[in-house]
Amino acid sequence: MRIAVDAMGGDHAPQQIVEGAVWAAQLVPHTLVLVGDPTRIQACLRGPLPSNVHVHPASQVVEMHEKPTDALRKKKDSSLLVAVRLVTEGEADAVVSAGNTGAATAAALLAWRQIDGVHRPAIATVMPARRGDFLLLDAGASPDVDPEHLVEFALMGRAYASQVMGRTNPKVHLVNIGEEPGKGNAFAKRAHELMVGHDWFAGNIEGKEMFQGGCDVVVCDAFVGNIALKTAEGVAEFIVEEIRSAVPTGPAKLLFLPLKAALGPLKKKMDYAEYGGSPLLGLNGVCVISHGRSNAKAIKNAVLSAVKAVEGDVVETIRRSVLAEREGLAQ
Questions:
Q1: The model's pTM
Q2: 8 with 18: CB under 8 angstroms?
Q3: What CA–CA distance (Å, rounded) separates 216 from 126?
Q4: Is 232 a domain residue?
Q5: Residue 241: CA atoms inside 13 Å, Cβ hemisphere, count?
Q6: Is residue 155 in some structural domain?
Q7: Cβ contacts of residue 268 below 8 Å, gap of 6+?
Q8: Following CA atoms 80, 85, 87, 89 in sequence, which dihedral angle do they give, to the nearest 10 degrees?
Q9: Is residue 180 part of a domain?
Q10: Tally of domains in the chain
């Protein structure tokens, strides 16, 4: 397996990207391809390049603030486009990027196209809960969708949950303002009607209930999903900072050591770097999009997620699921 890593994408590129990729290379028997400026990549290394890490040159960088369509049109030799092109040409099996999310989504979509029967791609993000975790999609790829597209998101989410997260017969919840079938706006009501006949549908779920645990997959449009994701990140950071600011300095700090030990698991669960990146589902290829501020730990975990997605044959599983859904509707 060969994983192409956009070494120049992200707030802390290329240093943290290179360190994370090298870290991941020590954990998997696969080849990692760092795409970007060879000189800058080499400067980030603390020793010789591992035998399973290669460098593929790219002379341009898509900046975080750039408009995706303009950047992709003007920068044909960007590290992002070159990484995506490696998959298109069969030189890599997946792409990992912490760069411009819109550009990564557009580049993969234009190069690989959707799986037959999938009308909109979706970013799937693993979210922590009191008991275990769950998969939320769409978290940012397709804000303007029809209720029918949420059924596709459900099928894609179930494929990823089963093949990568190890869930057996994963259930799907629909984000809504109440659990009752008649709740929500016209969009939510119609989406509920389309899902209610499937044995994998577990009904509506409110935002606060998602984090209690027991969910496998939660679906919504990207407008709602991205707000939910960013709000959760903000609340998590707020709690951590409030706890940190409440701890005194000096000798009195010793009194809080038991609290620090108790909060350790909570901090780990709320750390975005533990989850690495979010797969872009629905395309004829594997693309894992990491947070723009990703550190080496996040990149390492993103690479491991990409490896699992390829090993689990997520693309083909989604293809079969969508085909079965279409055949069922035709009968």
A1: 0.90
A2: no
A3: 10
A4: no
A5: 6
A6: no
A7: 274
A8: -170
A9: no
A10: 1
Beta bridge partners of 283: 114
Per DSSP bridges, beta strands 125-128 and 133-137 are: antiparallel
For 192, residues 6+ apart whose C-beta sits below 8 A from its C-beta are 174, 176, 181, 184, 203, 204
Tens digit of each residue's pLDDT, the chain (331 residues): 999 999 999 999 999 999 999 999 999 999 999 999 999 999 999 888 889 999 999 999 999 999 999 999 999 999 999 999 999 999 999 999 999 999 999 999 999 999 999 999 999 999 988 888 999 999 989 989 999 999 999 999 999 999 999 999 999 999 999 988 889 999 999 999 999 989 999 999 999 899 988 899 999 999 999 999 989 888 888 887 887 787 777 776 766 667 666 666 666 666 677 778 999 999 999 999 999 999 999 999 999 999 999 999 999 999 999 998 887 766 5
Q: Mention every residue, 6+ apart, whose C-beta is less than 8 A from residue 169.
A: 162, 200
CB atoms within 10 A of CB 260: 13
23: CATH = 3.40.718.10
What is the rounded CA–CA span in Å between residue 34 and residue 22?
9
The per-type count for the chain, helices as H runs and strands as E runs, is 12, 12
Domain containing residue 92: 1-118+282-331
The DSSP-derived string for 105-164 is HHHHHHHH-BPTT--S-EE-EEEE-SSSEEEEE-SSS-SS--HHHHHHHHHHHHHHHHHT
259 in a structural domain: no
Cβ-proximal residues to 228 (8 Å cutoff; 6+ apart), any chain: 136, 139, 175, 207, 210, 220
